[in-house]
């Protein structure tokens, strides 16, 4: 049986519940749509029943590709000007990141959380031979939330044909500006059991320090 990053527990609660919590506490967030796989649909319906706030709508079934899933989620939102797109497996996103993202996005219509890369990055070809070494000062690791004017990102996702790995790429393909703002090195994405071990360490440290979750 594979590792399910959304249902895995951290501090006694599923990863997805931690992720949703900060958005529930943010007064700027009016609606929350959870886009999940068919396998997690029933589980997610039960999770929503257990959540305290009414901003979370019924779960939305994802599509074949990332951009298809995101577009389905966007279409569930009603009359909103701004959309925050979040990886469900980033349990340490907090209210500060959300609010700062909204502020930065107002400048150009789109903004993403990211952190400067600490390691030297190598671009390689199919044979794993080095092609080039980007200037490390100009390389950032993308995170979420990624914040967009709703009409802008929905239009871009409908137009992009190739598969993309984050939503900012859709705007990049159209030649539209996307602002990068400082994220957090704690704002990790849990993908493997090893990541969960790191998340547990971050969780314990933040609990000791009394770091706010919202």
Features of this protein?
214 residues, 10 strands, alpha/beta, four-stranded mixed beta sheet, 7 helices, Spore Coat Polysaccharide Biosynthesis Protein SpsA, Chain A, two-stranded antiparallel ribbon, globular
Describe this entry's structure for a reader.
There is one protein chain. This protein is α/β, with parallel strands linked by helices and 214 residues long. The chain has one domain (9-113, 142-206): Alpha-Beta Complex (Spore Coat Polysaccharide Biosynthesis Protein SpsA, Chain A), CATH 3.90.550.10. The chain contains 7 helices and 10 strands. Strands 5-9-6-10 form a 4-stranded mixed sheet. A two-stranded antiparallel ribbon has the order 1-2. The chain has a two-stranded parallel sheet with strand order 3-4. A hairpin with a 5-residue loop joins β7 (123-124) and β8. It is globular, with a radius of gyration of 17 Å.
What is the percentage of strand-forming residues?
15-25%
Principal-axis shape: globular
Structural class: alpha/beta
Stretches with pLDDT under 50, minimum 5 residues: none
- State the CATH architecture: Alpha-Beta Complex
Give the ordered list of helices and strands: EEHEHEHEHEEEEHHEH
Considering DSSP H and I runs of 4 or more, what fraction of the residues is helical?
A: 25-40%
Instruction: Please give the largest β-sheet.
Output: 4 strands, mixed
Counting DSSP E segments of at least 2 residues, the number of strands comes to 10
Could you name the CATH homologous superfamily?
A: Spore Coat Polysaccharide Biosynthesis Protein SpsA, Chain A
According to CATH, the fold-level topology is Spore Coat Polysaccharide Biosynthesis Protein SpsA, Chain A
* Rg: 17 Å
**Overall tally of domains:** 1
Mean pLDDT: 92
CATH C-level class: Alpha Beta
